[in-house]
Structure formats: structure tokens, C-alpha cells
Amino acid sequence: MAYVPTAADLTDLKKLLGITTEDEDNILNFMLKLTGTKAMNSMNQTEMPDEFQPVLIEMTADTYRLLQSANGDQEQTVSSVTDKDQTVSYRDSSFDKVLLALSQSLKNYEMQLERFRKVGW
User: How far apart are CA 4 and CA 33, in angstroms?
Assistant: First the structure.
């Protein structure tokens, strides 16, 4: 069963991300749905526990930030500068690195997911 985000979820997520417009509401709702569904599947739950809501918002915000980084919307850091031919190199922010960071970030929530996990047969 897919998670259905609430209006409160979207409001809380936008506050956490500092988003004040409605321009990204569709993508944020989609990300809440994906993250919530993955969390419910991991917990073997058919409904999202109320106590898990703040964690869901934080997980979704982390995912959003990492995906923004993958899309180049975050500032890149300079890795090297050459004075004579004016060469500037930026650190790699490839999609693979972002996916790895996302995977590691979500693993940080594993203990919180385990608290709500139901045993399945």
C-alpha cells in the first residue's frame, strides 16, 4: 500500500526546507509518497505510525537536498585553481556519489525504522 502524504506533511517539509512558494508542491508530495512508502515497507506497516511522522519529514528533506545536489542546484566547491591559464576545477558531484550519499543517509534512520517494524510471516 502506498503512503498518501497529508497537507500537514507538505507544510512541515516546506518549513524544514525553507520553501515558501507552491512551485515545488508536486515534486515534494511525490517525494513524501516515495519516502513514506519505502518506510512503511521497511517497517512492514500498512499505515504510517503517528510517532514516525517527524522522521519521515526529515528523511524526505535529506532526500530532497541530496537530489538537488545531484541536479547541480547546490553550490559546488572548488577543488583546484590554476593562475596562469585561469583553470578552475570543481569537486565531482556525480549522480553516483549522490546516490551513495542518499543510501548512507537513509541507513542512518534504520534504528528508528526498526522501532516500528512489525514481524511478518
Answer: 6
Per-residue pLDDT of the chain (121 residues; tens, 9 = 90+): 789 999 999 999 999 999 999 999 999 999 999 889 888 888 888 899 999 999 999 999 988 887 787 665 445 555 556 667 666 665 555 555 655 666 666 667 777 788 778 776 6
| Domain ranges across the chain | 7-115
Taking CA atoms, 68 is separated from 31, 64, 78, 91, in Å, by: 12, 6, 18, 16
Sorted by sequence, the CB contacts under 8 Å of residue 85 that are 6+ apart come out as: none
